[in-house]
Amino acid sequence: MASHVDAAVFIYTEHSQYLVDQVLENPFGASITPVEFSTLSRDSAAILEGVGHVIVAARVPIIKTVLGYAQKYGFSVGIIPLPTQRELPRSYDLPGKLDEAIDLALRDDAPAIDLVLCNKQIMLYKAMMGRIPLLDAPLDMSRRRMFWHGLKRFVGLRLLTFNISLANKQKIRTAACGCMIVQHHESSMASRIIGQDSGVSDGMVSMIISSPSSIVEYVRFLFQTLNLSGRRKRIPSTIGYIKFREIDIESETELEVTIDGGATTMTPVHCETLQSAIRLNVGDELREEIRTAKSAKQKINIQHLPKGKEELQKATKKAIPFFAYASEERFRDLFLALREDARTNSMYIVLMVLSTMLATVGLYQNSSAVVIGAMLLAPLMTPIVSLAMGLLRQDKGLTTQSTVKIILGVVVALLSAILITQMFPHKPLTEEMQARLNPTLLDLAVAIIAGVAGAYTKAYKEILQSLAGVAIAVALVPPLAVAGIGAGRLDWDFFSQAFLLFSTNLVGIVLFATITFRVLGYSPAVRGRRGIKLVTLALVLIAVPLYLSYERIVEKIVLEKSWQHERFLVNGKYLIVRNARLNHYQDKDVMTVDILAREPLTRDDLNQFREKIQTNFDKKLVIRADVIYIP
Amino acid sequence: MLFTYLKSITMDGIARLVIILIATMMITACEREPAIEPSGKTISIGIIGPMSGDDFAKGQEGIKGIKVAQYIQPYLNNGDVMELVVKDDENNPDQTASLIKWMAEEKKVAAILLLSTSASALKAGAYADSYKIPVLTLLATHTDVTKDRQYISQLSFDNNFQGQVAAQFVKDDLLLDRVAVISDNDSFYSTELAGEFIRKFTAVGGIITGSLVVDQVSGNYAEALEKLKGGRTELLYMPIKADQVLQIIKAAKEIKWAPELMGGDGLLATVLNQYRDQVHYLEGMYATDFFSKHMPLTQYGDKARKMYESMFDSNISTYAGLGAEAHTVLQTAMNKCTAAENRECINKNIRSTENLTGIAGRLAITGEGKGVRPLIINAIRRGELGYVVKVY
Q1: What ipTM was predicted for this assembly?
Q2: Beta strand A53-57 with A76-79: parallel, antiparallel or unpaired?
Q3: Judged by CB atoms within 8 Å, which residues 553-612 of A form the interface with B?
Q4: pTM
């Protein structure tokens, strides 16, 4: 059972005069001396010196003054919140009911708490400078209102340069649209972002920095905030968080600093915490929190904030861009990996030779398993992803290195396939080869998706193993091997069709990996469009023959599907079509039909069979039949 | 230099280029044929078929198909209109013959489309030759319809083709070896088709377990079917009329026998049009046919199907499809003639029809008047016409 003070001074104002009688008649037997604040301000020393406990019911500025006296004269404080006050009771866990509030205010075991000063002014729960959309939104706001609030507050948002100095002399230069100092603030979204990390007795100042580097990032943050049901473990990427004993904040232009929604000061602002400076009767939960609090650690979580001259210049130059920019410094590991991928070495050459040879043999064997094995072995995907990043960032070194590596890989692959082709005297046209001789817009679609997937998997270390799947999906080496087979046979059409497929894959992956990196925020602060234009133009040029062949594939699919139901009666002999495949080869449409027949087919039967098929097609077909006899 | 040029291209420029390309593709895709100016002249075309009686569906549905084709292309190339003179012969060969005479002499029609079956067509051939009037039969499949005739042609395949296909479909697609054949001695069509089936089926190694002639058993099918059942018959081949097929199937049900079933052309269309309430008896039954709504149709076929559905608010039938095709064949033949009503010219052009796009594929008519077209095997599935295979 809590014990209460024997005597206390009750400081009230005209807004809380109605409470005097109730406080005087408190059920705890405490002797109360009511003092109106105007009287106190005239001679505070005479009234407060030697006083053990003070209760205050007034507006926030007056409460702060009383807390200032508490620090000076050493008395403990109890606060009876006014009905209009919302943030104060939440921050200090003060009860809403009057009798409970009086009970708490009169308790004699007030714990010591910190006093945060910003430019010498007491801050009870928050101080804000600049614009910090969403973070300052009240917790009880509906999701729909929160969404519109977030969108409205985003309009015209700009990042400003902030210089932040910490007690350990560390200096941070970043760009942000606003900052917020918080002290166990329980009323806004900010409290949810940092969770219970901001205590009232940890001797630290907590600071949240809002820096949405792009519209995409902001929208993501908006949805994260809307879905924020509990406290977060990870701080969103648009937010920086610093927890230190003292923090000095200087902004590029002078900014107004609003403290607890009222008093103001201007930047530069110096915020410090006076540890255990006062004793205040807080609610039981907060009291327990204080009792069990471990020693607080200083924190600097600013890895997502813009830093470095390049990023800061870009971030503060104009309005927030649609996609984020990033300096190489920020994603050092990724760029190091990409540079490594762009470097040509003997292993790459050996793997290219082996994978192409494997693919070529697999194509001759008509073995999907061997061809897939070759796809997995092929190291072409990595320099292509590096090239995409090089083009995006206009990094000449990365672009040149990866381009050279790709060209070298292509030449090696073609030569390897030519060599194998020369070793095989027969010239089969297997299904595996045919599948790579008719590129269409659908292949471009595969390349586009693979480009997105390739860049995405490269961007996140956790899913890097998926790059092998991307390599299989897009299959870079088999078309090269088919092109090499065509070159080896001196068959230009064979070569060009397969090489068109490879080029489709290459251009599709490069362009869409570039776009994906851009969306993911890997664009340089100073960007150029020349590389992207070049790839886009190549894509448009490649799309023309692919578009033309798209109709062919539709016709092929319709035919191949419908011919599962086709039969022929030639010279009284019944032929059952089991399968039909239509391929384009050397400007000719080749239809290969697998048929079942009971009776032996003569040349005349096959001619009639061919004529019957031809009658139903407008264009000339080369017809090949595989006959299986029914015993 | 390339880089300087590329630098000057904006993303807007690329977008414009793409839009121009797409617009060009769309414009070229939407090219239309020029409209025909009406000449104000009409050319009479005779339509003879069973508009009443047991086979009324053949006539009435055929007429609907002809009207669909007329709606799609109302004029000849010279702007003349084909006026239809429709007469009901109740599928009676004598009436068919007299109507041909009347149309040729009295109505001075340029050509006749005959919707009646083989018996009428066999008789019509002599009259067509006698009056030198081109007659195009839609449904007659008897092989002798065009034999030694100059002016009668078949749009359909003949029984020779149909019988051979049916026999080999049963043997090689359904993998059945033991078949009983039920035919109707009063029908030229039935006896010929049954004979061709038996000949081919046995030639490819099949066994005919028995034959049943419907008019000889005077309604006592159960006893005859018991014998066939005892002979381990796997399929009943029945090139007979729809009502006869229904009687046989009901009798088979009585003896708790459910063999596979197959019929001839037009059977399923007749059941679906005239015996809709009894279609469940035919569930799973195969039949040779001319179309299926569910098979991939030609562009023309798709257009005719949609037109039929919008005009008559029902699914296009086999007879209607043949009607539309017959009108197109005749119109094409007339378009090739300087004087569209020239019977000699029309007949010659009908008999040299080649590569004409029909409902389900290309069709042709040989110099002997034989129709060359794909045959469709359909089956009744869940009470509807299901597509099984297409035979060229």
Answers
A1: 0.80
A2: parallel
A3: 558, 562, 565-569, 572, 574, 576, 596, 598-599, 612
A4: 0.54
